[in-house]
Amino acid sequence: MSTTAGQTPPVGQQGGLPALADSSVALVHEWFGVTGGSEKVFRHIADLVPHAERFVLWKDSGVEEPQLRESWLARTPLRHSKAAALPLMPMTWRTLTRQRFDVVISSSHAFAHTVKLGPPETTRHLSYVHAPARYIWSPAFDGRGSSPLLALPRRALQAVDVRFSRHVHSYAANSREVQARIRHYWRRDAVVVNPPVDVDYFSSAPAADQAQPRDYLLGVGRWIPYKRFDLIIEIAEAAGLPVVIAGSGPEEANLRRLAERVRVPVTVEVMPSMERLRQLYWGARALLFPVHEDFGIIPVEAQACGTPVIGINRGGLLETVVDGETGFLIDSTTPDRFAALTARLGELHTDRIRANAATFSAATFAAKFSAWVTDAVA
C-alpha cells in the first residue's frame, strides 16, 4: 500500500472528484455534533463528493445538517450516551443499510472505519482517521476508559476494532502523530492529509479587529479535564497577564471558581460565534495550548490571525507550530515555565506566523485528499 499521495489531480469544475464521478459513493461519519473539528472536516469531504450518500450514527440535538442519514441507534436512548453506545457501534456500522456502494469513505475517530457497505472485491473502502479511538487505545490522553475495571472490555473492543477493519483498502491520517498510532495499533500504513482550516476567514479580519492592542492571553476549546484550561488560568496568573477562555463544556463551573481565586482578570466567553472568536484571536498576545492533541485546528486558526502559540512539545503542535518562529514549544507543564515564554513573544514576527498557517488551507486539504482518493481507487 502506498504511503504517499502522489501527484495532485484537478478537482472537478462542480466541486467533485473526477476519480469518483462515475462511482456510487457513501460518506460515513461517527455521531454528528453541533460543533467540532471532525465535523468540519466531514463537511469539506462532502463538498468534494457532492453526489455521495451521507451516513452518521446520529445527529446531536440542534444539528441542522441536511442529507445526513442516521442509523438505528438514533432511534434509541443510546444516542444520548456515547459511552453506553460504544460497544454497539461496530455492529451498528455493519447493519447500517442494505445498499452497496462502489466507494466508501469514512471519517473516523471511533469505529466508523469498520463500516462495510460491500465486499472488498467490488467496494473500495477508504478511511480518513482523526484518531484511533482514544478511549480504547490511548485512554491516558483524557481519562475516558482508563479505569482498571474497563481493562478487559477495552481489550475486547481493541480486538473488534482490528478484526472489523481488515477490509479497509487505504487509510489517511490527519497528522504524523495519528499516522504513527495507526501503524502501532492497527499495523497499517497511512497517508498524511492534514485537516482543512479556514485560514482565509481568520486572516481577513476587519481593520478594527486587526488594530487591537493584544493585551491578554487566550485559551480556546472544549472545557473538559484533559484540555487543561485550569493550567491555562494558572499560566496567566504566573505571567501576571489577563486571560480569556473561550468555549463550552462540563468544566465551566470549576473554571469559574478557579477564576475567582487567581490574581489576574479572567474573562469567560461561552460558545463565541466565529466572528467573535476571530476578534479574540486578533486581540490575544498568545494562544496557550498546553495539551497533547492529535492535530489541533485551533493553533492554526490563531496563527492565521498572526497570534503565536505557546504549547507542549508533543503531538500535532510539532506539525503546526515552528518552534522559535511561530510560537514556542516546551516539554514542561509547569505554569512558571510557560509564563517565562510570554516574555519572548517579541522575538516572533506576525508575517511569518500567518504564512505558516496558510500551508493548512482548505485548498491544500482538497488537493491532498483528492490525490489520496485518486491513488486509492485506481
What's the average pLDDT? 91
Order of helices and strands: EHEEHHEEHHEHEHHEHEHEHEHEHEHHH
Q: C-alpha Rg, in Å? A: 21 Å
The CATH architecture assignment of the largest domain turns out to be: 3-Layer(aba) Sandwich
N→C terminal distance = 12 Å
Could you describe the 3D structure shown?
This protein is of the alpha/beta class. It has a seven-stranded parallel beta sheet. It has a six-stranded parallel beta sheet with strand order 10-9-8-11-12-13, with helices on both faces. The longest helix has 16 residues, at 362-377. It starts with 24 loop residues before the first strand and ends with a helix. Helix 9 packs across helix 14 (335-341) and helix 12 packs across helix 15 (350-358). The radius of gyration is 21 Å and the shape is globular. It folds into two domains: 18-196 and 362-377, Rossmann fold; 199-358, Rossmann fold (3-Layer(aba) Sandwich), CATH 3.40.50. The protein has helices at 37-48, 82-85, 89-94, 134-137, 151-163, 176-186, 199-203, 207-210, 229-239, 252-261, 274-283, 297-304, 317-320, 335-341, 350-358, 362-377; strands spanning 25-29, 53-56, 68-70, 103-108, 124-129, 170-173, 191-192, 216-222, 243-248, 266-270, 284-289, 309-312, 327-330. Helix content is 35%, strand content 16%.
Structure in a nutshell:
This protein is α/β, with parallel strands linked by helices and 378 residues long. 35% of the residues lie in helices and 16% in strands. It has 16 helices and 13 strands.
Write the SSE topology:
Layout: E1 25-29, H1 37-48, E2 53-56, E3 68-70, H2 82-85, H3 89-94, E4 103-108, E5 124-129, H4 134-137, H5 151-163, E6 170-173, H6 176-186, E7 191-192, H7 199-203, H8 207-210, E8 216-222, H9 229-239, E9 243-248, H10 252-261, E10 266-270, H11 274-283, E11 284-289, H12 297-304, E12 309-312, H13 317-320, E13 327-330, H14 335-341, H15 350-358, H16 362-377
Parallel strand pairs: 1-2, 1-4, 2-3, 4-5, 5-6, 6-7, 8-9, 8-11, 9-10, 11-12, 12-13
Protein name: Glycosyltransferase involved in cell wall bisynthesis
InterPro entries: Glyco_trans_1, Glycosyltransferase_grp1
GO molecular function: glycosyltransferase activity
